[in-house]
Specification:
The complex is a heterodimer of chains A (116) and B (116). Chain A contains no helices and eleven strands. With 116 residues, chain A is mostly beta strands. In chain A, strands 2, 4, 5, 6, 9, 10 and 11 form a seven-stranded mixed sheet that branches. Chain A has a four-stranded antiparallel sheet with strand order 1-3-8-7, with no helix packed on it. Chain B has 116 residues and is mostly beta strands. In chain B, strand 7 and strand 8 form a beta hairpin. The relative contact order of chain B is 0.33. Helices cover 0% and strands 52% of the residues of chain B. The chains are: A mainly beta (116), B mainly beta (116). At the A-B interface, strand 5, strand 9 and strand 10 of A face strand 5 and strand 6 of B.
């Protein structure tokens, strides 16, 4: 979890309310990612960013938006939370392990969101 | 489309015995293959990866994995299990031709329990 901080770590909210999760890195890495983890599904990519103000959709992006105004911060927003968005959310950054391009992800500790 | 299958949701093994966590994959072209481990209330941690070369890859904490192209498998192994190896293990795959970690696909995870 070194170099990545997620906040809040736990949140309970009600259906229809907006929620923002924050990922902060101190490593100055270009690539940042948001995943959600659900039993039986492993990790699924929501959105990712390849630079300031450069973002793209992942596999399960519906209902989510992201913003990256600074290299170190990547925000995930649920504009109107639904019960199906109850999940554990992980932020990740990419470390360059070798020149091969098979980059390894380093994950934050996760944010557990419950939507009632 | 690429995919990963971890056929066992749960693997139990006695301490000191060898362990195997299974993974099969489907991808267009040659793969990059990864194993990650998740301890309770933590983010995923990188264990090892296969890029090219030797089919037997050695990683952290005494783990190794064998790439078998004909069987499209990348099983995780350890000669002698420890109670501290108990955790959730994820296999992941990316096609070499894929341009970014956006194309990294995770399996659903296997819970390994090592019994004392």
């Amino acid at each position: 979890d070194a170099g990545i901080t997620q906040s809040p770590r736990h949140k309970v909210t009600e259906t229809g309310t907006p929620v923002t999760l924050r990922c902060h890195q101190t490593e100055n890495h270009r690539y940042m990612y948001w995943y959600r983890q659900d039993p039986g599904h492993g990790l699924r990519l929501i959105h990712y960013s390849y630079g300031v103000k450069d973002t793209d959709k992942g596999e399960v992006s519906d209902g989510y938006s992201v913003s990256r105004s600074k290299t170190e911060d990547f925000l995930l927003t649920l504009e109107s939370a639904t019960s199906s968005q109850t999940s554990v959310y992980f932020c990740a950054i990419t470390y360059e392990v070798s020149s091969s391009g098979a980059n390894v992800l380093t994950f934050g500790a996760g944010s557990r969101l419950t939507v009632l | 489309a690429q995919s990963v299958a971890q056929p066992e949701d749960q693997v139990n093994v006695a301490e000191g015995n060898p362990l195997t966590v299974k993974c099969t994959y489907s991808v267009s072209g040659n793969p990059y293959l990864f194993w990650y481990v998740q301890y309770p209330n933590r983010g995923l941690q990188f264990l090892l990866k296969y890029i090219t070369g030797d089919n037997l890859v050695k990683g952290s904490y005494g783990f190794e994995a064998e790439f078998n192209k004909s069987q499209t498998s990348f099983h995780l192994k350890k000669p002698s299990a420890l109670v501290s190896d108990s955790a959730l293990y994820f296999c992941a795959v990316r096609g070499i031709s894929s341009g970014s970690a956006r194309q990294l696909t995770f399996g659903s995870g296997t819970q390994l329990t090592v019994l004392p």
